Amino acid sequence: MRILIIGGGGFIGQKIARSLAASGTLRGETITHLALADLAEPGPLEAPFDVSRHATDIGDRASVDTLFETKPDVIFHLAAIVSGQAEAEFDLGMKVNLFGTLNILEAARALGTKPVVVFTSSCAVYGGEIPEEIEDWTALNPQTSYGAQKAAGELFVTDYSRKGFIDGRAPRLPTVTIRPGKANAAASSFMSSIFREPLQGEEAVCPVDADYALWYASPRVTVANLIKCAEIPAEKLGEQRGFALPGKVATIGEMVEAMRKVAGDEPVNRIKWEKDQRIYDIVTVWRPYINPQKALAMGLTADNNFEENVRYFLEDDIRR
């Protein structure tokens, strides 16, 4: 079994890589090679199988073709220009999120082996004039450039699968929190920073009101679900390869109170509430109430509550 993780230098890509290194298997087969690719060459990984590391610009087809000389059986496509940056830099978002995804799908098609492709989509594909609670069959209606690019990628994953070029699956991720590291250009970045920084003794700014509700999942559960997505038999996926991953709904205020229960008043007192209209306008078109029956039927899972997410961060990712 040969695996490729595109976006392998990011925190989700690194967590998937470490999980695969620990298990040594995927889809019931022994892993023999793992290729990690990102815009800058990912760091080293200790594993019981061969690991190669690649600097790749997915917006450049020749660069992608060179990467696919690793001949992967399973591809995790995690690379993206994040929401806030894709909205501010439209051309860059199109180059990476749309045309980069097409380059990956075409390279996978050229292998001629029908590889499994796990394309990480987003709950940003929902929005506009749709019911308050989203079902598996709810039409996609993104209200940001990032959401539109992800929705287009989903459609191509489904069509390339229908044609037999790949065996694709396009799970729509909830907002993943609490992320480690530093804030990035994602409009949702504050949904980690308002917990991460206070738990590490630093101040943070919340740019939305306490009653803002979001659909969330912890990194630990997200990684487990993405690996499961690679292992789901094609017949269980059906004709529609895009589907929402399970998540939980909570308001920012409820999440802050969950942090208080786990870590006390001190981290909560480090949060400053200062509305940012640019961020507010992006995140408030995302819909939080999702009924992921297809994913649940396939054995994918959600966190139990946000207190659990805080504990996972303290166990797995807090800066020490």
Task: Report a brief summary of the structure.
It contains 13 helices and 15 strands. It has 320 residues and is an alpha/beta fold.
CATH top level assignment of the largest domain: Alpha Beta
CATH-defined fold name of the largest domain? Rossmann fold
Mean pLDDT: 95
| Computed structural class | alpha/beta
Q: How large is the count of helical segments?
A: 13
Q: Which radius of gyration do the C-alpha atoms yield?
A: 19 Å
Write the layout of secondary structure elements.
Elements: E1 2-6, H1 11-23, E2 25-26, E3 29-30, E4 33-38, E5 50-55, H2 61-67, E6 74-77, H3 83-88, H4 90-111, E7 116-119, E8 121-122, H5 145-162, E9 167-173, E10 175-176, H6 190-199, E11 204-206, E12 213-217, H7 219-231, H8 234-237, E13 242-244, E14 248-251, H9 252-263, H10 265-268, E15 271-273, H11 277-283, H12 293-297, H13 306-316
Parallel strand pairs: 1-4, 1-6, 4-5, 6-7, 7-9, 8-9, 9-13, 10-12, 11-15
Antiparallel strand pairs: 2-3, 12-14
Helix pairs in contact: 1-7, 4-5, 6-9, 9-13
Explain how this protein is built.
It is a single chain. By secondary structure, the chain is of the alpha/beta class. It has 2 domains: 2-173 and 218-244, NAD(P)-binding Rossmann-like Domain (Rossmann fold); 187-214 and 248-290 and 303-316, UDP-galactose 4-epimerase, domain 1 (Alpha-Beta Complex), CATH 3.90.25. Helices cover 41% and strands 18% of the residues. The protein contains 13 helices and 15 strands. Strands 1, 4, 5, 6, 7, 8, 9 and 13 form an 8-stranded parallel sheet that branches. Helix 5 (145-162) links the parallel strand 8 and strand 9 (167-173). Helix 1 (11-23) packs across helix 7 and helix 4 (90-111) packs parallel to helix 5. The radius of gyration is 19 Å and the shape is globular. The mean pLDDT is 95.
